[in-house]
Amino acid sequence: MAEELDPNNLIDMDSLMMLKELLGEKFVELIETYLRDSAARIEKLKVALEAGDIETAKHEVHGLKGSSRNIGINSLADTCDILEKQTHAGTVTNEEQQLAAIEQNFAAVAVKLKTFIE
Amino acid sequence: MSLNNEPIESLKILVADDSATDRLILETIVSKAGHVPVGASDGKEAVEAYQREAPDLVLLDVLMPNMGGIEAAKIIRELAKEDVVPIIFLTALNDIQSLVECLESGGDDFIPKPYNQTVLGSKIKAFGRLRRMHRTLLQQKEQIEANNLHLIQEQTVAKQVFDKIAHTGCLNLGNIRHYMSPLAVFNGDILVSEMSPNGSMVVMLGDFTGHGLPAAIGSMPLATTFYGMVRKGFSIPDILREINQKLNEILPVGFFCCAICVDINFKERRLKVWNGGLPEGFLYRLKDDEYELLPSKHLPLGVLSNQSFNGDCDTFQLEEGDRMFMWSDGAFEARNDDGEMYGEERLHNILYQNKGQSDIFDKILSNVQQHIGSSEKDDDMSLVEIEMRDVDIVASVDHLNEKRQGSLADWYMNFDLPETSLREFDPLPLLMNIISEVPGLRAHRTPLYTVLAELYTNALEHGVLGLSSQLKSTPDGFAKYYETRADRLQSLTKGKVSFSLEHFADEKGGLLVIRVKDSGEGFDINRKSKEKGLDAGKVVTIEENDDFFGRGLQLISNLSQKLTLFEPGNEVEVQYRWDIEE
Questions:
Q1: How far apart are CA B23 and CA B29, in angstroms?
Q2: Crossing angle for the helix pair A95-114 and A74-89, nearest 10 degrees?
Q3: Do A63 and B115 touch (CB under 8 A)?
Q4: What is the residue-level pLDDT of chain B in tens, covering all 582 positions?
Q5: Rounded alpha-carbon distances, angstroms, from residue B420 to B63, B378, B560
Q6: Which residues pair with residue B283 across a beta bridge?
Q7: Using a CB-CB distance cutoff of 8 angstroms, which residues of chain B are in contact with residue A71?
């Protein structure tokens, strides 16, 4: 169920530029932290889903959604939101596909974000 | 307070979020707004950071590992106690149930993710203001509590000082009963009493206008003046005049003291009353079984200037068993729970219904208190009863007979009064004042006053003014005598009375030698001595109980150890011996 990703819609550039202005030289730290933190969350999410640990999955996907939304990465946040809602309901369907969509989305975002810090 | 121009106060803000990026953004926003961020990555760390850093404001993510924001908020609330520490939840949650839970767990507000710099900045500002206001409130509350405590301490001290000044005296004599409510002192009521050296008991009940400190403050000069002057033998008019002047000078316009002042001489069974503005006193006459009223005839103390002040008293002859009642109007104004006053009528009814009974005082008291019931707020009444019966006056004066350092022991003084002073001045209080400086002599003030008064009267009236005491033998002559006395005193152009007092102290006590000489012609000592069958001589000494020259010298002779008359009869010497353990 992987959707086609429009590279231009991956990131809300207005939000990101506002953050760049706010953080100044710490912007690089923000991006690096986001990439590291999100990669770790996705890894934990993957393990949790495989183990059927809905609670941990809920927590990680919620965190990923929140920090993505905060820096304007809305498409990933939306994708996370669908999964989070299912974890709240207690039953997750198509977890592999959803996880793949999240990983794919994140990979695309990471490519794009790295262009800002090089 | 202007919201726009408020000073930027740097707050310490705890930022707890498990997402490192969110924390970074939040910390940056906080720093840029001029505050100091303290980071924590979960609820446990947040509680620890709170205890360690005591931040002014807490930003808590709801969902965090180890301990969630809601639980952390509850713990922080516990720890903060009275202190207001605003807690703002950070949440990507958007269902109403979650938001309600945030607030109910002790949160003050929430901020949705993604963060908006402006919104967050304003919220921090608003909560900083709230916290500042609460701090001010707490400080003010503490200040008020401290002030209140201070005030109570001050009142306690003031009460102690006041009790020392106002409640010495002779209120403990068996024939006085008095009641003053605990509130009375700071409601401006005062009751003072003291024995005068001439054997009179002087009692004064006063009621200052107003309440609280302004009302109480006037009682200090009143009490000190009262005690000082009564002990020295001043008369009521002199004492009232002095108090009136003091109060007139120190109290603001509209503040004054309603007062009733009585002087009871138990030996002579004579009552003098001055009432200025207090309710009428009641004098119970045992023989007639009736009351005589002692209404107010003067303006209260402190109203008039001393030129217009009138200290004249009414005089009554008393008999054993006569009783006098006086009270301040606090007794009438005592209110019950419904605000109804006790009133003058109820009090008068008790007086008349229980006429002649010995427990009237208790009946009035219990009746007023019954009326007040539980309300107590208006209980500021003062009530006094004095009974005419023989009391041991010397015993009451004895308490003044304390040993003092630096007191007079051996001394000598001459004191001359020329005609100008003889017309206006009463030298006795001044002389008594000096004599009272010898501690052992204080207890002898009554006989010494009598001796001095007799000597002075003889010197002035018979010596200087040349009046004959034979005039006084008939009631008509008595009036004539005083008329002539006043006339001659006014037209006196030349005359003098000289006192010389000498005191020798020894281990057993002391000897006071009093000599009084007048400018008169004297009298024929020899003739009188011959009539008495004594040898004529230049000096006549009366050492025993001779029935000599009329009552005056007889009395002096009885009170002293030795009385000597000098030629030509215008000079008398009295030796007064006193012992310590007498």
A1: 10
A2: 160
A3: no
A4: 444 555 567 899 999 998 888 899 999 989 988 899 999 999 999 999 999 999 999 999 888 888 888 899 999 988 888 788 899 988 766 667 777 877 887 788 888 877 888 888 888 888 888 888 888 888 898 999 998 888 888 777 777 777 766 665 677 777 888 887 766 556 678 888 888 877 788 999 998 887 767 677 788 889 889 988 888 888 899 899 999 999 998 888 888 999 999 999 887 888 999 999 999 999 999 999 999 999 999 999 999 998 899 999 999 998 888 999 999 887 777 777 777 888 888 889 989 999 888 888 888 888 888 887 766 555 567 889 998 876 555 444 444 444 333 455 677 888 888 888 888 888 888 888 888 777 677 778 888 898 999 899 889 988 898 888 777 777 788 788 888 888 898 888 889 999 988 888 777 778 899 999 999 887 766 555 544 444 434 455 544 434 445 557 778 888 888 888 887 888 999 999 888 654
A5: 104, 53, 31
A6: B292, B324
A7: 21, 25, 114
Interface check for B116 against chain A (CB to CB < 8 A): the answer is no
Q: With respect to CATH, is domain A26-114 assigned 3.80.30.20?
A: no
Lookup: tokens for B548: 């000599």
Q: Cβ–Cβ of A69/B114 closer than 8 Å?
A: yes
A82: Cβ–Cβ under 8 A, 6 or more apart, which residues? A98
Q: Kindly state whether A29 is in contact with chain B, defined as any CB-CB distance less than 8 angstroms.
A: yes
Which among A62, A65, A70 has the least Cβ separation from residue B25? A70
CB atoms A22 and B25 under 8 Å: yes
Calculate how close chain B gets to A5, using CA atoms only, in Å.
Answer: 22
Domain B167-394 sits in CATH at 3.60.40.10
ipTM score of complex: 0.86
DSSP secondary structure string for all residues of B73-100: HHHHHHHHTTS---EEEEES---HHHHH
The domain limits of chain B are 12-137, 167-394, 401-579
Q: Do A37 and B28 touch (CB under 8 A)?
A: no
Nearest CB to B32: which of A22, A69, A70? A22
* Closest-CA residue of chain B to A19: B25
Encoding tokens for residue B312?
A: 């004249």
Q: Please, are residues B283 and B322 in contact by the beta-carbon 8 Å criterion?
A: yes
- Tokens 């009885």 belong to B558
Q: What is the greatest pairwise CA distance in chain B?
A: 133
CB-based contact A67 B22, cutoff 8 Å: yes
- Lookup: tokens for B457: 């009267």
Per CATH, the homologous superfamily of domain B12-137 is Response regulator (3.40.50.2300)
The backbone torsions φ and ψ at residue B245, rounded to the nearest 5 degrees and listed phi first, read: -65, -45
Q: Does B21 touch chain A (CB under 8 A)?
A: yes
Distance from CA of A71 to the nearest CA of B (A): 8
Q: Which CATH superfamily is domain B401-579 in?
A: Histidine kinase-like ATPase, C-terminal domain (3.30.565.10)
DSSP-derived letter for residue B2 is -
Q: Indicate the residue of A19, A22, A59 with minimum beta-carbon distance to B63.
A: A59
What gap in Å lies between CA B58 and CA A52, rounded to an integer? 35
For chain A, the structural domain boundaries read 26-114
Flag if A66 and B24 touch (Cβ within 8 Å).
Answer: no
Distance CA A61, CA A83 (A): 7
